[in-house]
Amino acid sequence: MKLHRNLVFAAVDALNLIFNEEKQADKVLREVLKFDKRWGARDRGFIAETVYDIVRWKRLYSEIAEVKAPYSRPNLFRLFAVWATLRGIEVPDWKQIEPIPSRRIKGRFDELSKIRKYRESIPDWMDTMGEKALGKQWDKELAALNTQAPVVLRANTLKTTPKDLRNALADQDIDTKLVDAYPDAVELLERKNVFTSEVFKKGFFEVQDASSQRVARFLDVKPTMRVVDACAGAGGKTLHLAALMENKGQIIAMDIYEGKLKELKRRAKRAGAHNIETRVIDTTKVFKKLYGKADRVLIDAPCTGLGTIKRSPDLKWKLQPDFVQKVIDRQAELLQSYSKIVKPGGKMVYATCSILPQENQEQIKSFLATEEGAHFSLEKDEKISPAKTGYDGFYMALLSRKA
Ligand SMILES: C[S@@+](CC[C@H](N)C(=O)[O-])C[C@H]1O[C@@H](n2cnc3c(N)ncnc32)[C@H](O)[C@@H]1O
Q1: Which residues form the active site (predicted)?
Q2: In terms of DSSP bridges, do strands 294-300 and 342-352 run parallel, antiparallel, or are they unpaired?
């Protein structure tokens, strides 16, 4: 494989922004990929994959390359040299890249791979927390979280069917497969930029991880219902709810960030979803007015996102230990306030994209033991394991309010 200088330099520029300026990897890539209009799909793919790989294996590669933060440019090139050597790619003889004998890189790799925190490239605190929470299963989950996520689309059934979507994508040379047990999912066989396709512009699909596609269905909605999506964000699950409700009934999508709800409205327009109204939570009045009024409530709670490391490997370096307890406390508060929106006989789903029991089943157990929780009973819950499914880690609990 011949390495092109401008592509490698672009990857190093991106790593500089991610590692030294704490920018989010996906946002950085979106910008960096705009640098040169002449880059084709392969070039862009090379930059994105190289950057994601080096972000994913940052700790391991840094140990091998013997470099530390803040990462100078020569040190970022050293990380790149480790990446290339471990993939059997000849490191080019450029003045920016200080030679490291490949025997040394491979020897250090073998030695460090015996120790989990290096092999899986993870901060000490996160490794300790994961092992304490999940015991032996942590090994498997961690290994799965370090594999690249497949690209999964959710067919928008307001406009198409998964089968028709597959055919439309095939016409544009995008090969896909249907996924058993995920009725709306269409998975790409090869990574491609789907956002530039005509079918995307027409609103025939959204990119949504397969595990995430389980959440809206778990809420058991019907077209006649009033549904509140209390933490709607940019509306990944709101749009799915709209499709499941066949564009009927009413969905109230709330969030504390107006910007996210604006994006939701843009996506709803593209999807042809007309049964959604958005409400910014700028005072508690916004949700207090809804107490006892909804048939269904979704609390897709803010969480550590530990289940999504496959897609966002930089989370390993961005997440801080004190944030974990803060977010757990916030989830408990949201359960207290938003559960009151459910009317007697109604139902609610609490979901996270985390695999930590403290954010999931333990959170629900604590809620059920409170005065507010006493109005609810747990119908069922599901822990979605990245190791077992190959998709994101998720948790969902369906609770019903006593009539
Ligand atoms: C897991 S994300 C939601 C993702 C979204 N449901 C989707 O499917 O795309 C959690 C959301 O909760 C929002 N949030 C945080 N604190 C909140 C609060 N007190 N009330 C409502 N939403 C909140 C965040 O802004 C974020 O958009």
Answers
A1: 353
A2: parallel
Q: Is 207 in the pocket of ligand 1 (CB under 6 A)?
A: no
Give catalytic status of residue 231 as yes or no. no
Q: What percent of the chain has pLDDT over 90?
A: 93
Cis amide linkage into residue 70, ω under 30° from 0: yes
Kindly indicate whether the domain formed by 213-401 is annotated with CATH number 1.10.260.40: no
Catalytic-labelled residue, pool 15, 133, 294, 353: 353
Tell me, in angstroms, the distance from the centre of ligand 1 to residue 337's CA: 14
ipTM above 0.85 for this complex: yes
Name residue 46's amino acid: F
Annotated domain spans of the chain: 5-121, 152-207, 213-401
Q: Which residues are paired to 155 by β-bridges?
A: 205
Out of 3.40.50, 1.10.940, 1.20.120, 2.60.40, which CATH number does the structure's domain 5-121 have? Answer: 1.10.940
pLDDT digits (tens, 9 = 90+) for 227-281: 999 999 999 999 999 999 999 999 999 999 999 999 999 999 999 999 999 999 9
The rounded Å distance from CA 301 to ligand 1 centre is 6
At 68 the three-state DSSP class reads coil
Kindly provide the b/e burial profile for residues 263-279, where b requires at least 16 CB atoms within 10 angstroms of the residue's own CB: ebbebbebbebebbebb
- 152-207, what's its fold? Alpha-Beta Plaits (3.30.70)
Indicate the helix (H) or strand (E) that contains 399. strand 394-401
